[in-house]
Amino acid sequence: MKHLKWTLALAASLVTGAASAEISDNVVRVGVLNDISGIFQDTNGMGSVEAARMAAEDFNGGGKGIKVEIVYADHQNKADVGNAIARKWLDVEGVDAIVDVPNSAVGLSINTLLRDSRMTFLASSTASSDLTGKACSPNTIQWVNDTWATGNTTAAAMMSRGGKDWYFLTVDYALGKGIEAEAQKYIEGHGGKVLGSSKHPLGTSDFASFLLQAQSSKAQVVGLANAGGDTINAVKQAAEFGIQQSGQKLVAFLLFINDVHGMGIKVAQGLQLMEAFYWDMNDDTRAFAKRFAARPGMNGKMPSGNQAGVYASTLAYLNAVAATGSDNAKDAVPEMKKFKGKDKLFGDTTIRQDGRVVHPMYLFEVKKPEESKYPYDYYKLVSTIPADQAFRPLAEGGCELVK
């Protein structure tokens, strides 16, 4: 597996003192592992690499002259490929932390590989809630989203607005199944009904038969438990079938600003979605987004929540390295878990003992074309889910780290 390397010379001096003995090879290497060529290339891809580089630049040696190197590779949405890259980074190339990793199957595989190693897993885009449940690891921090939060908070928000009957279009792998299971549990536990579900393969281009089944179900809400190109294709074809025009609500459990941009606001208008980050929320998010958009190769694109998560988690890890003088997970991860405060991109933030980063979540609706005033002005805020309600309670995850 070929991958490119890019090095930041963040300080003229070498690491000195106690840190010299603790930071392996006198450099902290962070590996961005994601989908560079497939359906997640816009929401992650090279944008995540740029976000990691921004974090390294802003870290600026941590006041201790610590040097940082960013490397990256494409896992091709294959667990065996991702695992091979991670093993090479661990055993041969001296990478200290892996960040990003969209695709739950890949993320869970790497979580197992890195458990009890010296490497930190910053699972900023891995959505499986098992990472803070039965598969929890002392080496893993999960930042942006997970299937529990996605399923429960989205279902709760839609049901509070009258959406009692549901039909699911679900991608047939860990991500989709996890989202649907969590949402169904919430829906049925709060007086709603799931009228049916259609499973589709990753990378589906034709959703006609699935959408016809959803339409004929007469469900009030059609839930898209998929991501990336699958969600874009489903939304485009739902518009052609007149799903929303016929009175059904279309909700995307895992959609990002890049996806809305790709399908166009005319097609996406009225779509409901849950996000942890929106570039136009406040002065801090706008400042970050404008810097990101000006980066090489970004061509004015605004960052997704996943790309914002790469930045935030990478910077948090580097700050923990500076605080402890060590890039070993056994030192850095416990230091990260001490954080409780305001993150510039995600708001009020706490990092729990199970590795879950807790922050608010937001239900948005995509604006009508005439409501959008400037590029990427796509969302209007419907409701805010506070941090203490947005994620599975700590005691209910079954993680041995909190027992």
Textual characterization of the structure:
The protein has 403 residues and is an alpha/beta fold. The protein has two domains: 24-145 and 282-355, 3-Layer(aba) Sandwich (Rossmann fold), CATH 3.40.50; 148-275 and 361-388, Response regulator (Rossmann fold, 3-Layer(aba) Sandwich). Helices cover 37% and strands 20% of the residues. The chain is built from 14 helices and 16 strands. The protein has a seven-stranded mixed sheet, sandwiched between helices. A six-stranded mixed sheet has the order 1-3-2-4-5-6, sandwiched between helices. Strand 2, helix 2 (45-59) and strand 3 (68-74) form a beta-alpha-beta unit. Helix 2 (45-59) runs parallel beside helix 12 (305-324) and helix 3 (79-91) runs parallel beside helix 4 (104-114). The longest helix has 20 residues, at 305-324. The radius of gyration is 20 Å and the shape is globular. The two termini are 40 Å apart. The model is unreliable at 1-21 (pLDDT under 50).
* Average of pLDDT: 92
Q: In which order are the strands of the major sheet placed?
A: 8-7-9-10-11-15-16
Fraction in helix: 25-40%
- What's the order of the H and E elements? EHEHEHEHEEHEHEHEHEHHEHHHEEEEEH
What overall geometry do the principal axes of the alpha carbons give?
globular
Q: Which residues sit in consecutive blocks of at least 5 with pLDDT less than 50?
A: 1-21
> Care to count the β-strands?
16
Can you tell me the number of structural domains?
2
Distance between the termini: 40 Å
So, the CATH homologous superfamily of the largest domain? Response regulator
CATH architectural name of the largest domain: 3-Layer(aba) Sandwich
Per CATH, what is the topology of the largest domain?
Rossmann fold
**Could you describe the largest sheet, including whether it forms a barrel?**
7 strands, mixed
Number of helices: 14
Structural class by helix and strand composition: alpha/beta
Strand content: 15-25%
Radius of gyration: 20 Å
| CATH top-level class of the largest domain | Alpha Beta
